[in-house]
Amino acid sequence: MARGKPKLKLTDQVVLKLRELILGGGIAAGQRVTEVAISEQLGVSRTPVREALAVLSQEGLLGAAGNRGYLVQQFGSKDIEDAIEVRGLLEGAAARIVAEKGPDTALLAALESCLADGAALASRKDYSRDEEMCWAEINHRFHSLITEACGNRALISVLVLNDKLPFASSRTVVGGDTSTAQNMARHREIIVHAQADHQQIVTALRLRQSARVEALMREHARLAQSKIALFWEINSIRDQTLLP
Q1: What is the pLDDT along the chain (244 residues), one digit of tens a residue?
Q2: pTM of the prediction?
């Protein structure tokens, strides 16, 4: 997947742009958003906007407003941090379960495929919004493989609920400015770090190091918090803009 030059679909571009507008306060908490207004604001047709709004609703960034569109949900930086922290706890428990019973060859092969795709992406000299979204899919595939393999239906159900909180899902990505070499390097640094984490996690699973892999997964989740903080810093945004 990552070995060719990634290209964002129009719906993905709209999702990413709307996430950034909401996170940056460009679309304020409590504000009503509609297909027509967003379509005109972004200069795109209503179909990708409709699809993007549905995605953001599933992520907990938007709430239904009857037949009049959506409302931007009210949340702050602590809400984001708490949701990501809970994801780390749940995914850590899932990884521990997998390590204790021993990962099967099919799971290890699938995880190795994720590592290969991630390595190809992390080695790129350039870094853009397309790469951001491509990494998000690799990352989500990696995390989903582990949680599904744990076989604990209760844990998986709670994780699904947590993913509906703003910026909690392993698939959620925030692009931000990569127009300067410095900003591009800082974005790449987080991806390179995440890729190294994935490698260590697979190694710990293979060796059935249950306590170690649980700790690695919990710590790994904190990189999502780093991405949010980087977005705010690069764009000179105070997280208070997200509060009610």
Answers
A1: 444 445 568 888 898 889 888 888 888 889 999 999 999 999 999 999 999 999 999 989 999 887 778 999 988 888 989 999 999 999 999 999 999 999 999 999 999 999 999 999 888 877 666 777 788 899 999 999 999 999 999 999 999 999 999 889 888 877 665 556 666 777 778 888 999 999 999 999 999 999 999 999 999 998 888 877 777 776 655 544 443 3
A2: 0.83
Is the CA virtual torsion 154, 157, 161, 164 positive or negative?
positive
Q: What domains can be seen in the chain, in order of their start residue?
A: 10-72 (1.10.10.10), 77-242 (1.20.120.530)
